[in-house]
Amino acid sequence: MYKKAEYQIIKNRIEEQRKFIQVIMGPRQVGKSTVVKQVLKDCEMPYQLFSADNVPKSDNTWISTCWDAVRSIYENDKSKPILLVIDEIQKIKNWSEAVKKEWDEDTFNDRNIKVLILGSSRVLLERGLSESLAGRFEVIRMTHWNYLEMKECFNFNLDQYLFYGGYPGIGTMIDDEERCLEYIQSSIIDATLQKDILWDTPIGKPALLRQTFELGAAYSGQMLSLTKMLGSLQDAGNTVTLSGYLRLLDESGLLCALQRYSVDNARRRASIPKFQVYNNALKTVFRPYTFVQAKADRTEWGHIFESGIGAYLVSQAYINRFEVFYWHEGNEEVDFILRKKDSIIAIEVKSNAEKSTVGLTNFKTTFNPHRAFIVGSGGISAEEFLSLDIRTLF
Predict the structure, then answer these.
(1) Pairwise CA distance, residues 111 & 103, whole Å
(2) What phi and psi, each to the nearest 5 degrees, are found at residue 314?
(3) Which of 141, 164, 183 is the last residue of a domain?
(4) Which of 307, 126, 319 is CA-nearest to residue 216?
(5) Is residue 1 part of a domain?
(6) pLDDT tens-digit series, residues 351-375
(7) Which one, of 223, 304, 308, 235, lies nearest residue 259 by Cα?
(8) Domain assignment of residue 93, given as a range
(9) Quick check: is 85 in a domain?
């Protein structure tokens, strides 16, 4: 079975001395539970795995019951540590308070019980961690599969990756586009909106939340003002409402709104957003084109190409902790600006030779970035770019 790079990271962490709760975090359907099960299969340490999948939301004592079961095993043989793994923990109300109580009790009593938690909702996990567990955990971030992973595991070529994205769940079903469409709609989009965002977040207009996502995803790789969005949405409310919904979609790993790069924070926050999906399947699912039709339409494929590069960048930004912007001044534009601390990288995406690169030249003159280059026609190939370790750019 294919093992992602996170396999070794998780294995190394649980083999270290007990210090932090290990939290596996990321969007839905990227293989978090699978990689943990791979680690457990190869782990020499005794462990107990529990899942809150079918536990009532209000049953806060369930976590303590799991902990007590592990403690009873540990008390029989204190010579070696034991690992407690809880999956789908976000489904339990006030889960972080219960985990804090049990973890602190083990720490006080010098019990060598290690803990690994994970769940399908990035939103609810992050919320719980910030509420109660400060200083007691460290996060292992997982994101959508990149091109090399989809190529090595499912033999994807570049065009297939750009169109179908990086969900391993559709890796073996791309010959049936209707089946792929249904999987993305039900297992990704519906599950994230209904079970993650609406599960524990008061939303005044759930239909508007979905409309906001669908419109933003369809426009991935393009700028669209919130005011214009309001004109395209039914019962749209105001821009403050849309901004709040976009923040939730971003936190869920579905869709983000990139800000215009500027040294002035106020100008950056007031800029027209450039929408970007975290996985290109979330864009193509809303476009009226099959894979073959999209490739035959030069304009459509240009949008898919740029959005595919952007999806890779924002997903990598999530796990490698850098920021992604765009730059626009008059008629000049640079597709993506990456920033990590004082290092700035400018990237122009060209699917064909017709697109001007004057914006990239002027950005270099104005801001003197650490690196500036083209991905696509006239520059580094998309396949080469998507195959490199992006951390080496900074």
Answers:
(1) 9
(2) -70, -30
(3) 141
(4) 307
(5) no
(6) 876 677 789 999 999 999 999 999 9
(7) 223
(8) 6-141
(9) yes
Amino acid at 39: V
Tokens of 338: 């990456």
CATH number, domain with residue 46: 3.40.50.300
Q: How many domains does the chain have?
A: 2
pLDDT digits (tens, 9 = 90+) for 66-88: 999 999 999 999 989 999 999 98
57/205 same-domain check: no
SS (H, E, C) the chain: CCCCCHHHHHHHHHHCCCCCEEEEECCCCCCHHHHHHHHHHCCCCCEEEEECCCCCCCCCHHHHHHHHHHHHHHHHCCCCCEEEEEECHHHCCCHHHHHHHHHHHHHHCCCCEEEEEECCCHHHHHHHHHHHCCCCEEEEECCCCCHHHHHHHHCCCHHHHHHHCCCHHHCCCCCCHHHHHHHHHHHHHHHHHHHHHHHHCCCCCHHHHHHHHHHHHHCCCCECCHHHHHHHCCCCCCHHHHHHHHHHHHHCCCEEEECECCCCHHHHHCCCCEEEECCCHHHHCCCCCCHHHHHHCHHHHHHHHHHHHHHHHHHHHHHHCCEEEEEEECCEEEEEEEEECCEEEEEEEECCCCCCCHHHHHHHHHHCCCEEEEEECCCECHHHHHHCCHHHHC
Does residue 36 form part of some domain? yes
Percent of the chain with pLDDT over 90: 73
On the 0-12 / 13-18 / 19+ scale of CB atoms within 10 A, 16 is exposed
How does pLDDT run across 96-110, given as a tens digit for each residue? 999 999 999 999 999
Do 195 and 123 fall into the same domain? no
Domain boundary among 107, 126, 141: 141
| 88 and 219 belong to one structural domain | no
In angstroms, rounded to a whole number, what is the distance separating the alpha carbons of residues 355 and 357? Answer: 7
